[in-house]
């Protein structure tokens, strides 16, 4: 009968402990000029801390199968200050090497990206990353997912995210779940996305989407196409409510005005008083608020 030498056990424990000890925080752009360069230098367990500001990319960010966190900066109200811009020429994130939920994208705003098909902003193939406190905004594609496309048993989690103003000419404005993939969506707002069908989510074949505590509104033409799992606490409406009716009594009046001013200034999404979704509650929003004064239509 073979025996394991005690020295081998100690050696294995040493390597595990030292691997954890060597995990570090990599700063972008201080340590590496780009997010991808930082990923290439990272080892599992590292955190890539991306400074506030706008970062233009030409090639999609690929985590290379590593269990790492790519983390942006937040303002005082919890809104992402790190913006990654595809300049309407490329998708922004491509996760395709068997990543698990140890691969995390957090506090990032992905915006202004485009592909012909298969995910204008994010493509996930056979992987299960986590997106938390992110914004996926202004993506476009002709086919299968203006925002996010998943396939090959992918099982990503989207938590506390805003997914808005994405468009697909055919199906899946915000999300397209394909080929047995399962998208979990928790406490997210999916609004103002467009597609011929499944403007919020298009679920194809044996794929699925599990929704919990999320708001879907004003996604045109249809919100969800395909079977999905309703885990409770969701709101699906054709419009995003009567703007300004904060207490839901069917009237926009002085009571709501008091609530409106409580949101004044920087306001993270989802922000009920931010009428034009620019991240700030100011005089522009006040003018839009008064446009709804009186009984809600």
How many β-strand runs?
A: 28
Sheet with the most strands, sense and barrel status: 9 strands, parallel
Question: How many domain regions?
Answer: 2
Order of strands side by side in the largest beta sheet?
Answer: 1-2-4-7-10-13-17-20-23
Radius of gyration: 21 Å
Helix content: 10-25%
Mean pLDDT across residues: 89
Strand fraction equals 25-35%
Task: Write a compact overview of the structure shown.
By secondary structure, the protein is of the alpha/beta class.
Q: What layout of secondary structure does this protein have?
A:
Layout: H1 6-22, E1 25-28, H2 35-41, E2 47-50, E3 53-56, E4 69-71, E5 82-85, E6 93-95, E7 104-106, E8 108-114, E9 122-125, E10 130-132, E11 135-141, E12 148-151, E13 157-159, E14 162-164, E15 167-168, E16 175-177, E17 182-186, E18 189-191, E19 201-203, E20 208-212, E21 215-217, E22 224-225, E23 229-230, E24 235-237, E25 251-252, H3 254-261, E26 265-266, E27 280-281, H4 283-291, E28 294-295
Parallel strand pairs: 1-2, 2-4, 3-5, 4-7, 5-8, 6-9, 7-10, 8-11, 9-12, 10-13, 11-14, 11-15, 12-16, 13-17, 14-18, 16-19, 17-20, 18-21, 19-22, 20-23, 21-24
Antiparallel strand pairs: 25-28, 26-27
């Amino acid at each position: 009968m073979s025996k394991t030498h005690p020295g081998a056990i100690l050696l294995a424990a040493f390597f595990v402990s030292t691997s954890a000890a060597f995990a570090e925080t990599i700063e972008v752009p201080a340590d590496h000029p780009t997010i991808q360069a930082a990923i290439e230098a990272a080892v599992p367990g590292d955190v890539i801390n991306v400074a506030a500001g706008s970062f233009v990319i030409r090639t999609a960010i690929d985590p290379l199968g590593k269990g790492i966190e790519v983390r942006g900066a937040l303002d005082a109200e919890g809104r992402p200050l790190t913006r990654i811009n595809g300049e309407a020429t490329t998708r922004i994130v491509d996760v395709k090497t068997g990543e698990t939920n140890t691969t995390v994208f957090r506090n990032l705003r992905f915006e202004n990206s485009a592909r012909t098909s298969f995910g204008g902003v994010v493509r996930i193939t056979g992987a299960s990353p986590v997106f938390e406190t992110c914004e996926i905004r202004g993506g476009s594609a002709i086919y299968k997912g203006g925002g996010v496309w998943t396939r090959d048993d992918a099982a990503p989690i989207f938590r506390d995210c805003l997914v808005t103003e994405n468009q697909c000419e055919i199906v899946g404005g915000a999300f397209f779940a394909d080929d047995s993939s399962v998208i979990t969506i928790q406490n997210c707002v999916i609004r103002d996305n467009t597609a011929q069908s499944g403007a919020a989510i298009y679920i194809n074949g044996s794929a699925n989407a599990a929704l919990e505590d999320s708001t879907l509104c004003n996604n045109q033409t249809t919100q969800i196409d395909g079977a999905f799992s309703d885990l409770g606490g969701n709101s699906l409406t054709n419009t995003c409510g009567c703007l300004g009716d904060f207490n839901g009594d069917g009237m926009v009046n002085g009571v709501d005005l008091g609530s409106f001013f409580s949101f004044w200034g920087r306001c993270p999404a989802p922000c009920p008083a931010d009428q034009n979704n620019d991240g700030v509650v100011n005089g522009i929003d006040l003018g839009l608020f008064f446009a709804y004064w009186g009984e809600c239509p």
